[in-house]
Amino acid sequence: MQFHVQQAARSLILLGFSVFIYMLHFTGKIYLFINPKYLLLSQAAAFLFLLLFFIQITRVWTIKGTHDHDSCSHVGECCSHDDHHDHFHDHGTTPFSAKKLVSYLIIVLPLLSGFMLPAKVLDSAIADKKGAMLSIAGSSKSGQSRQVTSETKEQADNPGTGDATQPPEESDYQAGQDTDIPEGTETATGYENQMTDEEYNKKIEELEKGTIIFNDSIYSSYYEEISSNIDKFQGRKVSLYGFVYKEEGFAEDQLVVSRFLVTHCVADAGIIGFLSEFPDAATIEKDMWIKIEGVIETGSYMDTPIPLVKVSKWEITEEPEVPYLYPVTIKRN
């Protein structure tokens, strides 16, 4: 029996990728990399790597003296299937070279870093590089543009109703009330961010009632609704949590309660959040996780109206096991 080192190395690489993906799923760290709707695809990749490992392991040992397609590569020669189809490729038995070393390192180093280095959660430093406030202001501006277009079309379809106004909903907010900040902050792990149309519409209807509680499963949808129509929600009481983001130009009593929204994978993560004002803001460090309760007002950033939360209560909280948000996925029957 002849042992082939390069074939063994390839087998270990395939097994390593399979084990690494499995570990991400087993520990729950997979949510730090991809949107939960891609979990099955990720599991399929782990299974495929394992299958390729079992195929590759058969090439690690060969019987001396045999000459087949998997062991017919010789330096400077071709592996010929017939007289008119000649080709040369490496079956893992050619001498090791610097070119091969570079190829193996390109594949192995990311795998080793995955095993040896802890997954880093995106923080305010990354948010700053992504232009957090520009992103927040941009979301608000684009949402308001869509709202104006929708209202203009509705008035055109229903002439005579354009001047009708709805009385503002009376807020149940009382400054300084001695009640705890509502919990309601379950994390959208697994497939909890998947809903039917009926479930989603029910969640949106709850936006019109009482205190607006930003659960992870519906956070991004509520954020979009409020950003696109700030006047409608002005004076409404909200309860939410996130990490602290600050940048130059903020007043001492200002900070942003922020979250990262992952659409597909962590590489496309964007920041969303609410500019918040309260006297203790200056004492809170960046990246601390806090829970706040307050009332929505209209703020401004670079002459763009954005939602502003006037905070009445706040408290330090733990970073959740899954710190990212994911857009709602509508389940189709």
Strand order within the widest beta sheet: 7-8-9-11-10
Please identify the top-level CATH class of the largest domain: Mainly Beta
Number of helices: 8
- Quaternary structure of the protein: single chain
Assigned CATH architecture of the largest domain = Beta Barrel
The H/E string reads: EHHEEEHHHEHEHHEEEEEE
Extract low-pLDDT stretches. 73-78, 80-86, 146-156, 159-179, 184-191
What is the mean pLDDT? 80
Distance between the termini: 56 Å
Helix residue percentage: 25-40%
Counted beta strands = 12
Task: Give me the CATH fold name of the largest domain.
Answer: OB fold (Dihydrolipoamide Acetyltransferase, E2P)
Radius of gyration: 28 Å
What portion of the residues fall into strands of 2 or more residues? 15-25%
Silhouette: elongated
Largest sheet: 5 strands, mixed, barrel
Number of domains: 2
Structural class: alpha/beta
Question: What attributes characterize this protein structure?
Answer:
333 residues, alpha/beta, OB fold (Dihydrolipoamide Acetyltransferase, E2P), 2 domains, five-stranded mixed β-barrel, two-stranded antiparallel sheet, 8 helices, 12 strands, 35% helix, 20% strand, transmembrane helix, DUF1980_N, UPF0703_membrane_permease
